């Protein structure tokens, strides 16, 4: 059971960070080292929880994502200036009634696992690094293979899928571009639209010219065992042998707690920022996958968090970045 303690606020920080993935923890480390007092709110529900191994992170290639999170949290928590609230979520971020004149104009309401870890805090600034929720294609059994032989990040897992018979499963209108990317790692690729429109006729011709098959029939089931996919079975019974592949989820930025502030977003709901992480609301920053789409790699998110931390430090000190 969780509890929410009503205002008035019970604590004050320089920065509240929402999310403890690579972006949030990287920002926390750098802000702490700038002698800022930081609170990190961590739901402990990372989007990559199903992923067994991560790739592309220099010095940590092949390390499980949960191990990266553990190491990063330990590093951050060594500093007394930073507090990490685990298994907690943010109910809302609002301006305080006297925000225009207050040194701590933001109030963040936190829902924790105990009364002692719930309540409201004020801060000088807020960094949103809450990431995304995923909705996988509507395919029976897909969860049983996700993160083990079916992945969403081609840059992260394409190398290990090299030269296999691969599937790209999705129901969105960007499958053509994704298929051309996946084809960098294999010459045997089938795009499954699962009955959705997905591709137009011209795109299908383009893919065919590259040796990429398009299968528009609905998927009846995925076959395999222990997370290893072996075939895609179509409605009607035909089986296509597959030994790995990629899915195109729908991604939903986790920003509902910002409703009262109403920051600028793109048409997909991602927070719009400048190159340094500033949103349309002064004092509100964002980093990682919650911002406009880009490479969804851990190292990219960590870099974005570090950059946002540098920007916040300069802004809070009133020192312009050159």
From TrEMBL:
Give a GO molecular function annotation for the protein. Answer: thioredoxin-disulfide reductase (NADPH) activity
Indicate the secretion signal residues: none
**The FAD/NAD(P)-binding domain, residue ranges:** 13-305
The protein's UniProt keywords, in alphabetical order, are:
Flavoprotein, Oxidoreductase
Family annotation (Pfam families) = Pyr_redox_2
Annotated catalysed reactions: [thioredoxin]-dithiol + NADP(+) = [thioredoxin]-disulfide + NADPH + H(+)
Concerning InterPro entries, the annotation shows:
FAD/NAD-bd_sf (IPR036188), FAD/NAD-binding_dom (IPR023753), Ferredoxin-NADP_redctase_2 (IPR050097)
Q: Give the superkingdom in one word.
A: Bacteria
- Could you identify this protein by its name? NAD(P)/FAD-dependent oxidoreductase
């Amino acid at each position: 059971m969780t509890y929410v303690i009503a205002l008035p606020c019970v604590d004050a920080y320089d920065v509240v960070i929402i999310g403890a993935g690579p972006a949030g923890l990287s920002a926390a480390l750098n802000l702490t080292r700038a002698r800022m007092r930081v609170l990190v709110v961590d739901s402990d529900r990372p989007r990559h929880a199903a992923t067994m191994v991560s790739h592309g992170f220099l010095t940590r290639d092949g390390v499980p994502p949960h191990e990266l999170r553990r190491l990063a949290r330990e590093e951050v928590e060594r500093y007394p200036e930073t507090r990490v609230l685990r298994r907690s979520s943010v109910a809302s971020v609002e301006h305080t009634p006297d925000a225009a004149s207050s040194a701590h104009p933001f109030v963040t309401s936190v829902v924790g696992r105990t009364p002692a870890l719930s309540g409201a805090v004020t801060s000088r600034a807020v960094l949103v690094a809450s990431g995304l929720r995923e909705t996988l294609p509507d395919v029976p059994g897909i969860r049983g293979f996700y993160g083990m032989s079916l992945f969403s990040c081609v840059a992260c897992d394409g190398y290990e899928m090299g030269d296999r018979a691969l599937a790209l499963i999705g129901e969105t209108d960007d499958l053509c571009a994704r298929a051309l990317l996946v084809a960098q790692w294999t010459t045997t690729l089938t795009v499954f639209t699962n009955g959705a429109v997905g591709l137009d006729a011209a795109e299908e011709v383009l893919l065919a010219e590259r040796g990429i098959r398009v299968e528009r029939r609905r998927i009846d089931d995925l076959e395999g065992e222990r997370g290893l996919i072996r075939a895609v079975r179509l409605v009607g019974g035909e089986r296509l042998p597959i030994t790995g592949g990629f899915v195109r989820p729908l991604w939903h930025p986790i920003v509902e707690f910002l409703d009262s502030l109403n920051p600028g977003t793109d048409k997909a709901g991602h927070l719009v920022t400048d190159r340094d992480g500033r949103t349309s609301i002064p004092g509100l920053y964002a980093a990682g996958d919650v911002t406009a789409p880009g490479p969804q790699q851990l190292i990219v998110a960590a870099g974005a968090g570090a950059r946002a931390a540098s920007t916040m430090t300069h802004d809070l000190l009133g020192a312009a970045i050159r």
